TrEMBL record:
Residues 1-58 form the HTH lysR-type domain. CDD domains: PBP2_LTTR_substrate. This is LysR family transcriptional regulator. Transmembrane segments: none annotated. The lineage of its organism: Bacteria, Bacillati, Bacillota, Clostridia, Lachnospirales. It comes from Jutongia hominis.
Length: 296
């Protein structure tokens, strides 16, 4: 099989359509179909299910895709290394991130990096923590922003300590005058919660402090969560960075005991990064890693 075969397979898998893959690769649908058929014949098993609604990966195809991604990423790394030997900074970096990083950090990162390295392109994938973990492990992205607690077995470099806040409807009376929200006072409120894959750090905070809440609202995105809080459906816990660009009228209090999520940049194999990926990785460290971890 050739690199073109691998590229065709990956593109069809990503797009779920022979025609869409053909448009992206500049080939005809029949050429795409022939390439996949030849690949399946050589492998001895089917990698795609075909139907009128499109194509999906077979079980064999799902297991094969990470290896195909690894081959394509290795080829990209080779050409980036050749460009580096020739004094050029070229290539592509694929970055996975969650919502609040996408809205708060990423625009600045993209601007500063592309001003310094115009020959390196960046492809961005936004999703939940679980999405970023899957993308990293399956070679879909080169680098991923995660919280340290969500990364688990994925190597991650800590960057920033992000305080957790208790968010309540504007003007909500407080039982105590202090400028924070304690656990006992939180117990008196209904909560709006997000799915655990969306922000595991918040779920950890609730569990660690025995806040066994019963919530009727299980949402995914930050805006929906805070919108429900604004309209009086409950309170929520949110990282401080997330609240930077929330337009709703709410009050925010530091939580007691103090709690944080630690944001980091993750990569599966730091020792074997492609030159462009390593350049991006170091750029993020220089721009966002706090002094406490630089010293460490």
């Amino acid at each position: 099989m050739t690199l073109l075969t691998y590229q065709v397979f990956k593109t069809v898998a990503d797009q779920g359509s022979f025609r869409k893959a053909a448009d992206i690769l500049g080939l005809t649908p029949s050429a795409i179909s022939h390439t996949i058929s030849a690949m399946e014949s050589e492998l001895g098993f089917s990698v795609l299910n075909r139907s009128k609604s499109g194509v999906t990966l077979t079980n064999y195809g799902e297991h094969l895709l990470p290896y195909v991604n690894a081959v394509l990423n290795s080829d990209e790394s080779l050409w980036q290394a050749i460009a580096e030997f020739n004094g050029l900074k070229q290539g592509k970096v694929k970055v996975g991130c969650f919502s609040s990083i996408c809205t708060n950090w990423l625009p600045s990162i993209l601007h500063s990096f592309q001003n310094e390295y115009p020959g390196i392109s960046i492809e961005v994938f936004q999703g939940t923590y679980d999405d970023v973990i899957y993308w990293l492990k399956n070679g879909v992205v080169d680098l991923g922003f995660l919280s340290v607690s969500s990364a688990k077995d994925i190597p991650i470099e800590p960057l920033y300590k992000d305080p957790l806040l208790c968010v309540v409807p504007k003007g909500t009376p407080k039982r105590e005058p202090e400028e924070y929200m304690g656990i006992d006072e939180m117990r008196n409120h209904q909560f709006v919660t997000q799915r655990e894959s969306t922000d595991a750090d918040i779920q950890n905070f609730l569990k660690e402090n025995d806040l066994n809440i019963q919530s009727n609202y299980h949402v995914v995105d930050d805006l929906s969560t805070v919108a429900l809080v604004e309209h009086g459906f409950g309170i929520c816990i949110m990282p401080a960075i997330t609240m930077n660009d929330i337009p709703y009228q709410v009050d925010c209090y530091p939580v007691k005991p103090d709690a944080y999520r630690i944001i980091g940049i993750a990569a599966m194999n730091k020792e074997f990064m492609a030159p462009a990926v390593r350049t991006m990785y170091n750029h993020v460290l220089e721009q966002y890693q706090q002094e406490e971890w630089r010293k460490g």
